[in-house]
Amino acid sequence: MPGLVEADDLGMYVLKFRGAGQGLKALVAEVVVGELARALGLPVPEIVLVDLDPELGRAEPDEEVQELLRASGGRNLGLDYLPGSFDFTPLVRDPGPELAAQVLWLDALVLNVDRSWRNPNLLLWHRDVWLIDHGASLYFHHRFAQGWQPAQTYRFDASDHVMLPVAGSVTEVDVALTPKVLPVLDGVLDLVPDEWLDDVFGTPDQARAAYRAYFEARLADAPRWVGELEAARVARV
Ligand SMILES: Nc1ncnc2c1ncn2[C@@H]1O[C@H](COP(=O)(O)OP(=O)(O)OP(=O)(O)O)[C@@H](O)[C@H]1O
Ligand SMILES: [Mg+2]
For residue 108, which of 69, 79, 161, 214 sits 20 to 30 Å off, Cα-Cα? Predict the structure, then answer.
């Protein structure tokens, strides 16, 4: 359950609480995937870190929300609130084959299962598409422990991806975007607060190295999964 808050910069943010059921890893995924997408040129609302005073819970009438606020003292994640935005689907507006293919490719890269036509997690704002809600991506990190190694292959089911019916060539997107990922990745991983990575491996930098190892493995496997995406796309069109 995200909340809408005004921060001390007077901006309005959609707040993702550290005390929510999905835990800190969902916040890590929001930062890593959101900032990677942005670095690749995809539109993502500004992501900020928001310090929350758990005392705010005192003024909250709803008991469940009270509990959430009390469990979320410290650093939380905020997304710039896009006022007047509404849920985007390709039926509302054609995103164009290139953007659609980029979103499909990104979600396959980061194993984002939350972009189905039922729950697209895309917003239409000022006539543009914006990507939100990447907290369920990178699900392999729920198995992180000392000695973790990325698998050689991961399954990604694109059959109900919202962009599949309108996407252009994923192969072309792959050629254009693959060389851009690793050069920006360290900068992206550095944006994750150390404190969110503390209990994962020995040190936050070991956790960052594990994320990097994942991306290297996933990109090395790209010929296979891009081929699968292309087959799914051709079957759909
Ligand atoms: N930056 C934003 N600006 C405006 N509205 C937003 C923004 N981020 C999220 N929302 C709205 O809040 C809803 C929930 O946000 P989000 O999908 O990120 O959270 P969630 O906890 O994963 O919820 P769900 O389980 O419903 O997907 C979105 O579907 C959207 O309508
Ligand atoms: Mg959502």
Answer: 79
59 against 26, higher pLDDT: 26
Task: For a ligand 1 pocket test, name from 126, 133, 137 the mutation site with the most ligand atoms within 8 angstroms of its C-beta.
Answer: 133
- Closest atom of ligand 1 relative to the 87 alpha carbon: 31
- Closest atom, ligand 1, to C-alpha of 82: 3
Site to substitute for ligand 1 among 31, 123, 125, 137, most atoms within 8 A of C-beta: 123
How buried is residue 126: exposed, middle or buried, by Cβ count under 10 Å (0-12/13-18/19+)?
A: exposed
Instruction: Dump strand ranges (E) for 56-197.
Output: 74-80, 86-87, 122-125, 128-131
CB 138 within 8 A of CB 211: yes
156-210 confidence digits (pLDDT tens): 999 999 999 999 999 999 999 999 999 999 999 999 999 999 877 789 999 999 9
| Domain locations along the chain | 3-80, 86-130+141-236
